[in-house]
Amino acid sequence: MRTTALIVGAGHAGLAMSRCLTERSIHHVVLERGEVANSWKTERWDSLRLLTPNWQSRLPGYGYAGADPHGYRTMPETIAFLECYAQVISAPVHTHTVVTSVRRTDGGYAVATNRGDWQSRVVVLASGACNIPSIPALAESVPRAIASFTPAQYRNPAQLEQGGVLVVGASATGVQIAEEIQRSGRPVTLAVGEHIRMPRLYRGRDIQWWMDAAGILDQGYQEIEDLARARNVPSLQLAGYPDHRSIDLNSLTAIGVKLVGRLAGIRDGKAQFSGSLANQAALSDLKMNRLLDAIDAWANANGVDDEVQPPHRFEPTRVEASPPLSLDLNRGEIRSLLWATGYRPDYSWLHVPVLDRKGRIRHDGGVVDSPGMYLMGLQFMRRRKSALIDGAGDDARELSAHVAGCLRSTPPPAYVNRSKDYEVGQA
Ligand SMILES: Cc1cc2nc3c(=O)[nH]c(=O)nc-3n(C[C@H](O)[C@H](O)[C@H](O)COP(=O)(O)OP(=O)(O)OC[C@H]3O[C@@H](n4cnc5c(N)ncnc54)[C@H](O)[C@@H]3O)c2cc1C
């Protein structure tokens, strides 16, 4: 089977690109190993809500039209939103089609799947940034009696035995899951490394509203001094609770969560924590306050001050003066462990030499270092919001223009003139 452009993945990023290619009359298919919105259907925990408000899920030609623009979607609502989008834009999605290999050929790419092979001049990798939970090597030293979970395996606290739970990682995933497990009656110890504290509301407005209005989310990848670092910063400590409350280390200790430093090692069943908890918390407070300063300056310069509440600052993070530096995992106090240590993409099927030594794709704002290959949906790919639903539209518009230019400038391989070869006639 042949097509002009082939998109791997029918998450919001692949769908946004599909819509933009359709607008440019570029024939394409979207290959999806599961169903539309597969990651949200199969890899998320039950209570998760988007941490971006409803108004902020803007996709090309589609957005929120309901009565609660400031609410946060549940998982079933998120799935329905994306399924509806796929229908509205008539995305040519081939479901249950697993891409098993992508190789470069003379005229573009050969793509093998469990349902036949494709040839395409352009390939867009929209297969997700969070396919595999990143688990540190020290996980091998966790005593066998402790049940370990990744966020992709975790659904709700009822999965866990009664007893203590060690949650490793205090970014969006870790703090949300730690709170729900603690509230279920299982005492949580939270190992805290680098994290980004962020209030849900500031001066009466959602923090995402501020970052959107002030242009922070639109900041481009070429404006950033340390791009590698920007692409690796942890997610914001945010949750989409219906009552718009914040989640941070203070709110967790208030319900009884015990904080320790970053998990640095496990020796003879004893977990060892770094002594940097107080420093990490202070640094996070400092960075949050810098962002709030920038927001205040923007509000002042743009005449917004009168429409919102006055500036204020939040109570500093409270941490124990000497938190424990070790915890004996053999003692039976901890029964379960959750690795909230981040995610990474899976490119095991990509047989094109575009990966650097850390396994990351070499690209310039989503234009991969291989002619006719593109990326979508990675953190800070073209702008700060690239990995968010709201960021896919601008990225897809710009990259689809690049795709069109690439198709114009490279002579089509012999097969494109034989239109009968196209699965669905060239758009
Ligand atoms: C826990 C969590 C919470 C998040 N919360 C928010 C939020 O509140 N707001 C927000 O804007 N963003 C949020 N994000 C970030 C981001 O929106 C999601 O990661 C989103 O799923 C990324 O969209 P995507 O289309 O790039 O990837 P995905 O949604 O992961 O889509 C990729 C698709 O590719 C398919 N695929 C992968 N490999 C293959 C293959 N070999 N063959 C065929 N198909 C394949 C997958 O099945 C999947 O359907 C969150 C992410 C996580 C992990």
Describe this structure in words.
With 427 residues, this protein is of the alpha/beta class. The chain is 24% helix and 21% strand. It has 9 helices and 23 strands. Helix 1 links the parallel strand 1 and strand 2. It is globular, with a radius of gyration of 23 Å. It starts with a strand and ends in an 18-residue tail after the last helix. The site of flavin-adenine dinucleotide has 33 residues, from helix 1 and helix 2. Flavin-adenine dinucleotide binds next to helix 1 and helix 2.
Query: What structural class is derived from the secondary structure elements?
Result: alpha/beta
Low-confidence residue ranges: 418-427
| Overall average residue pLDDT | 95
Number of helical segments?
Answer: 9
Query: Which ligands, by name, code or SMILES, are bound?
Result: flavin-adenine dinucleotide
Dominant shape: globular
What's this entry about, in short?
This protein has 427 residues and is an alpha/beta fold. Helices cover 24% and strands 21% of the residues. α1 (12-23) links the parallel β1 and β2 (28-31).
Characteristic terms for this protein:
alpha/beta, binds flavin-adenine dinucleotide, 9 helices, 24% helix, 427 residues, disordered C terminus, 21% strand, 7-stranded mixed β-sheet, 5-stranded parallel β-sheet
Chart the SSEs and their pairings.
Elements: E1 2-8, H1 12-23, E2 28-31, H2 38-42, H3 75-88, E3 93-94, E4 99-105, E5 108-113, E6 116-125, E7 132-133, E8 147-149, E9 164-168, H4 172-183, E10 188-192, E11 196-197, E12 201-202, E13 205-206, H5 207-213, H6 227-230, E14 236-237, H7 249-254, E15 258-261, E16 263-267, E17 270-273, H8 277-301, E18 326-328, E19 334-339, E20 343-344, E21 363-364, E22 367-368, E23 373-375, H9 392-409
Parallel strand pairs: 1-2, 1-6, 2-3, 6-23, 8-19, 9-10, 9-19, 10-15, 11-14
Antiparallel strand pairs: 4-5, 5-6, 7-20, 12-13, 16-17, 17-18, 21-22
Bound molecules: flavin-adenine dinucleotide (FAD).
